[in-house]
């Protein structure tokens, strides 16, 4: 196992503990910088409520109409958020 893998493995959070953390804490614990959505729970909740109801572009436009462009991240950031939430939902349901 390489040096980076050993370091990453030593910082890993057990999956049960990860799901118990709020998302912002988990993001920081993984060593990543918190995203705009990690810091703005209202916009995050708005986006989560609309997942699966519309495409990413329309969800982002709706968010801009409600919160303004300064609070809503870029389309690529929203897309990354959507993809990570779908992946997390799949893991919670036992999918890989």
- Alpha plus pi helix count: 7
Rg, rounded, reads: 15 Å
Shape: globular
Number of strands: 0
Helix content: 55-70%
**How far from one another are the termini?**
23 Å
Strand content: under 5%
Low-confidence spans: none
Q: Which structural class do the helices and strands define?
A: mainly alpha
Count of folded domains: 2
Give, in order, the helices and strands: HHHHHHH
**Main beta sheet: strand number and arrangement?**
none
Overall pLDDT level: 78
Helices and strands, with pairings:
Elements: H1 3-11, H2 15-20, H3 23-29, H4 36-39, H5 41-50, H6 56-67, H7 75-92
Brief overview, please?
This protein has 96 residues and is mainly alpha-helical. It has helices at residues 3-11, 15-20, 23-29, 36-39, 41-50, 56-67, 75-92.
């Amino acid at each position: 196992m390489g040096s980076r893998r050993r370091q990453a493995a030593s910082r890993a959070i057990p999956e049960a503990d990860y799901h118990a953390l709020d998302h912002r804490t988990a993001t920081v614990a993984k060593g990543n910088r918190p995203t705009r959505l990690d810091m703005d729970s209202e916009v995050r909740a708005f986006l989560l409520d609309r997942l699966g109801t519309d495409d990413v572009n329309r969800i982002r436009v709706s968010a801009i109409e409600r919160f303004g462009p300064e609070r809503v991240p870029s389309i690529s950031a929203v897309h990354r958020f959507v993809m990570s939430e779908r992946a997390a939902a799949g893991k919670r349901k036992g999918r890989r």
